[in-house]
Amino acid sequence: MSQRPILYYLGPEGTFTHQAALQAQAGLETALGRAPRLAAVDRASSIIERVDQGRGWGILAWENNVEGTVVPNLDGLINAPRTAGFARLGLDITFDAFVRPDHGVLTQVSAHPHGLAQCRAFSDAMGLEEVPATSNAAACRDLGPQQVGLGPALCGRLYGLDRYRAGVQDFQGARTDFLLLAPRGQAVELSQAWARAQRGGNTASDTCAYESILALIPLQTGPGVLAGLLDRMRDAGLNMTAFMSRPIKGQDGAYSFIATVDSAPWEPSLHTLLEDLAGRAVWVKTLAVDARMPRPDPPVDQWMLPVGGLVAGRSSAGEPTAISKNEELLWPTM
């Protein structure tokens, strides 16, 4: 790692991933004493391919608090033989509306389809026709004189645009976590360097908490297999913060399971668990290890719940009748 590495991100310039890459660039300079060069690519899968080939590092959108895990990026990392994640960083997702300095009457709004969906109240209020673009940054880069472009704040400076209005997204508080990637042989060293930088250079081993993302595939399927896997993780005393399944493509009934746990693979509890699982006909792979970010633990208030359902013997509408309880739980009526 003596030469200045490249950090690949999903382009063009001005995407949210570019904004996260700039943040990562500054963090890596603090952690390593040198900043990587940034390079845009046109597909997220190309980022993993380049890292897998040892051509540099990468950054991918990993999870957001609106839509959850970015599944194609997860699948790509599961199947990448020589790539692992070593750090995570969070980015608040806010959309600004931009126009050209020489704009005329505004009749259209352009952004990636997801961006258009997240800013629909603004577009509807202005009576703008939606024009999908390949990315929010591309919409701003190619903006027409009758168009409003939606994108991150840095698009205005990059493409010489005027900010028409700030923060036009429908949902306030949206946030995306990004995962930094490196060749597997570099991941542990980079994760520890990033962690030291996050805790202000303190080298004491007990001052940083890590989390690991694991991929687990039981080689035997059938009743009780998943319960047994979860029992092993519980008995190891690990705090699991996320768990999901992904189908093994084209194979009915076969799944990989993705678990996020509060530990590093070299720490005794997780080290022992991984050895145990590998010896019990379970394919195991550590996808990422990173310094755990502060996590809120808010109570789930009534207004956060979906319509319907039961909790503590009550429905969202109040005390349920026998009929409504049967309907919510799909119990047969007597």
Automatic annotation (TrEMBL):
Segments forming domain Prephenate dehydratase: 6-183
Protein's GO biological process: L-phenylalanine biosynthetic process
**GO molecular-function terms, A-Z:** prephenate dehydratase activity
Question: Which InterPro entries does the annotation name?
Answer: ACT-like_dom_sf, Preph_deHydtase
To which pathway does this protein belong?
Amino-acid biosynthesis; L-phenylalanine biosynthesis; phenylpyruvate from prephenate: step 1/1
Keywords, sorted A to Z: Amino-acid biosynthesis, Aromatic amino acid biosynthesis, Lyase, Phenylalanine biosynthesis
Give the catalysed reaction(s), semicolon-separated: prephenate + H(+) = 3-phenylpyruvate + CO2 + H2O
| Any one GO CC term of the record | cytoplasm
Identify the EC number(s): 4.2.1.51
Q: What is this protein called?
A: prephenate dehydratase
Organism of provenance: Bifidobacterium xylocopae
List the lineage, top down: Bacteria, Bacillati, Actinomycetota, Actinomycetes, Bifidobacteriales
